[in-house]
Every structure is written in C-alpha cells, then in structure tokens.
Design a protein that fits this description.
Blueprint (H helix, E strand, L loop, with lengths): L3 E4 L3 H12 L4 E5 L22 E4 L6 H11 L3 H8 L1 E2 L4 E4 L1 H13 L4 E5 L13 E3 L7 H11 L4 E7 L2 E3 L9 E2 L16 E6 L1 H13 L21 H6 L26 E7 L6 E4 L8 H8 L10 E3 L2 E7 L2 H4 L5 E2 L2 E6 L9 H19 L12 H12 L4 E2 L5 E2 L21 H28 L1
Parallel strand pairs: 1-2, 1-7, 2-6, 7-17
Antiparallel strand pairs: 3-5, 4-5, 8-15, 9-13, 9-14, 10-11, 11-12, 12-13, 16-17, 18-19
C-alpha cells in the first residue's frame, strides 16, 4: 500500500497521521521545523501550542466545543488523549501543560510502526505520483508553498490576524492582592480544587486608567499590505476591544461576576484572570489578554494591574498573520481540492478556528484518506454531530457571497469556531435549558451509529 503523505506537524497534521496509522495505512509526515521556523513557534516539537494552552470548555452536554472534545475522544483522537494525560487545573475548561502535551503527541507518533517523520521543507505542491496528500501546514504556511496553493486554486487566500497572550511566572504574583478561585467555584471534575484561576481585582478607577493605558500604548506596526487584514472576532487583542467602548472588557474577559475577593469586602469592578499554563504550576497565562502592544508597552501597562506590579513574564503577547482558503468554493465534502482531488486540506487552512476545530479537521481528513487508501466507502458524517456540522459548514453550508450594487459579489467566508448553530435545530419544542443537552445527546447517538456503520462496512 502506498503511504499517505501529510505535510505539517501541527495539531491537524499530527491527528491525521494518527488516524491513518491506526487504520493500518502507512504515513509519511513532512515537518519543516527545525530547518525553518515561524514567527509563532519556539520549538521543533510536533503539535506545539503557539497561543493559549486551553482547549476551552470540556462540558460536552452544555457546550459545543465540549461536545467536539467528546466526539473526538470516541473517534480515538490522539490530541484529545494527550490533552487528558497532561491536563492542568482550569475550572471547567480543558487546559494542558503545553510542553508535556507536545512531547506526548510526538512520542506517540514516532513510536508507531506506520509513521515515518521527514524533517524537510516542502516548497511546492507535491506531484500527483505521490498519491494521497494531506496539506495541514496551518495559518503560517511557508511562503513558496502558500504561493503554489494560490496558483493552483486561482483564489487569493483570505487572511486575518491572530494574537497570543502573555505568560507570567507564578512566583512573581502578589497574593496579598490576588487570590485563587474559579467563577462560582466551578472547577474541573477530578482535577484541581475548584480554585483554578489567579484573580487580580481592579477598582473602577484602576479599570478606567487601564483602559486609557491600552488606548494610549504603543502598538505593533503593520506592513502596508497588511493594514486591511481583519481580526478574528473570537481572538481580538485587548486594545481592539477597548477601542470598541470603555466597558467592552468589563463585560468580556475582565468581567468580575462569580468571584469574591477574600482580601476586601468591596466587590471588584473588574478582574484579570490567569490560568495555569504548565503542570508544575510555575507559569500562568493571562486569560483573554491577546495583544498587539509592543513588548515595552506590555510590561509597563500590565504591571499596573493589582497583584502584577512585580510580574515577570515568561512570554509577552504578540500578533501574527493567519491565512485560510475559501473552502466552500475549493473543497468537496471529503476535504479534497476540487481541481486536484489527490490533495486534501486540514486544520486552520480550511477556515476553522481554534485548536480543537483544527485537530478535528485533521481527524476527518485522516479518516477520509484512510478509507480511500483501503478502497472502503466511508459513510457520510451526520450533520447532527459537531464533527459533521463543522465540516458541512466549511464545505457546503456557508452562504456564498451576496450581490452588491456594482454587480460583484462580497465574499463573507470567515474562520468559524464550533457552535450549536452549525447543527440542525431540534424538531420538537422544549425548555431552553434542555436544548443543548438534547442536541449533545442526539449528536453522540448519531456518532455512535456512524462509527458502527463504518466498522460494519469495514468488516464486510
């Protein structure tokens, strides 16, 4: 059997390799690091987390991303298995020790007899005689390969900016002002003690001064050709949120609800939360504090936050440009490129956003490619599942560009996180509080039937 080639060793590429290898299909993983790195990566490890260390909510009965977690677990996801093995306290969220997580993924892949890792730079589209190829190079695809993709598709890749948050050394936080607590004391079951976040309180005066400091701070300058690139709405820099109104952050990542300051009776006007970033508990990530401020401005302003006056930073925030293809026009429902069906795409390049969504597209690309390599027929994935709803949205479910006055079309395809709105509504009325659990149960039942159907067809 010819091997399937996977280009890119991020979350999507790693997951695709795992699915292929465990289906009995040989796979060659091509990763350009350490020969060539990116502006966001710091290591040559597979599945390196370059932004937050959080996979977001793990509540699969009430949250769509939690449902996606559970569906992936039931599909033997390597990414979700390693996230569980290297979990750190984060309330109801699934957060990981980023170094141990990445090492775990790499060790699992390199020890699998069906996986071969090639450390090399791919600068053009592979020839068709390679056979099946999955391109999972992520939002920071190496320039020559990105240009080759543009030349093949005839489409300009859309682009947006993605930002990363600062990481603080735990021993530099002043706990005479800060305290440990999860909102409403809701911790992750079986891990931590329910007090999973560091909370730094701000009075109204301190909050207003902080907002003004954000507006006045020096920001990273963009190149001329980057100036019209939009941000992804779910990962806005804090200064961009501040520009939308003085209370935007107070009702966003700095909201004080569900928290009680043990140091004083007066309730905080706003709160900055930090989430554990490694298993040792020595590093904490500033939740929702993605930023494009210069490093000097960050250090000065963030140290005005009560409890962080003497903060030492393991990493300061930054911003990088992401790209993705126009999947509704370019890909079929098996993630194959219409013009060159031997090429599949996976991960953020397909127009999904988030660690879990990217890995989910790798999982599906790997399963699609494995079935094809073995001459099997993979049943259509139900769109009532989170996996099916997500892939359906980026390949067939997106509303195409609308006509505008000039007669041309305004393209509206943008990166998408998983959400219940991507799943068909329930066909019967029920109380609002019961809808999400009902949709989640419907999804898990549909996934179980799909997996059984696939297994039955494989057996025959």
């Amino acid at each position: 059997m010819k091997p399937v080639h996977v280009i890119g060793g991020g979350l999507a590429g790693s997951e695709a390799c795992w699915q292929l290898a465990n289906a009995g299909v040989p796979v060659v993983l091509h990763e350009m690091r350490p020969l060539t790195s990116t502006d966001a990566h710091e290591t040559d490890q597979l599945a390196e987390l370059v932004c937050s260390n959080s996979f977001r909510s793990d509540d699969f009965m009430h949250n769509a991303v939690g449902l996606l977690h559970e569906e992936m677990r039931r599909c033997n996801s390597l990414i979700m298995r390693m996230a569980g093995d290297h979990r750190v306290p984060a309330g109801g969220a699934l957060a990981v020790d980023r170094v141990a997580f990445s090492q775990g993924v790499q060790d699992a892949l390199l020890s699998h007899p069906n996986v071969t890792l090639e450390r090399e730079l791919i600068e053009s589209l592979p020839p068709e005689d390679w056979g099946s190829v999955i391109i999972a190079t992520g939002p920071l695809t190496h320039g020559p390969l990105a240009e080759a993709i543009r030349a093949e598709t005839g489409e300009d890749s859309l682009a947006f900016y993605d930002a990363i948050a600062p990481i603080v050394y735990q021993d530099s936080i002043d706990f005479s002002k800060a305290w440990m607590q999860s909102r409403w004391d809701k911790g992750a079951e079986g891990i931590g003690d329910g007090a999973d976040y560091v909370n730094c309180p701000l009075s109204e005066e301190q909050y207003n001064a902080f907002i003004q400091g954000l507006l006045d701070a020096d920001k990273t300058a963009f190149k001329e050709w980057e100036k019209d690139t939009p941000y992804f709405e779910a990962c806005l820099p804090i200064e961009v949120m501040a520009e939308r109104g003085p209370m935007t952050l107070a009702f966003g990542p700095m909201k004080p609800v569900g928290l009680t300051n043990p140091h004083q009776e007066e309730k905080p006007y706003a709160v900055v939360q930090l989430r554990q970033d490694n298993k040792l508990g020595t590093l904490y990530n500033m939740v929702g504090f993605q930023t494009k401020m210069t490093h000097g401005a960050q250090t000065e302003l963030l140290r005005t936050i009560p409890g962080l006056e003497n903060a030492r930073f393991a990493r300061l925030g930054g911003i990088h440009r992401n790209t993705f293809i126009n999947s509704p026009q370019l890909l079929d429902d098996q993630l194959r490129l219409n013009s060159q069906p031997y090429l599949r795409f996976a991960g953020q390049m397909t127009g999904v956003e988030g660690y879990v969504e990217s890995a989910a597209m790798g999982l599906l690309a790997g399963r699609f490619a494995a079935a094809e390599a073995k001459g099997e027929e993979l049943p259509a994935l139900p769109n009532t599942t989170a996996l099916g709803g997500l892939v359906a949205h980026i390949t067939t479910g997106h509303i195409e560009g609308r006509e505008i006055e000039s007669g041309t079309k305004a393209e509206t395809f943008q990166p998408m996180n998983i959400n219940y709105g991507l799943l068909p509504p329930l066909n019967h009325r029920m109380k609002k509080r019961d809808r999400k659990p009902a949709m989640s149960q419907r999804a898990l039942d549909a996934l179980a039937a799909w997996l059984d159907d696939h297994s039955a067809k494989t057996a025959t």
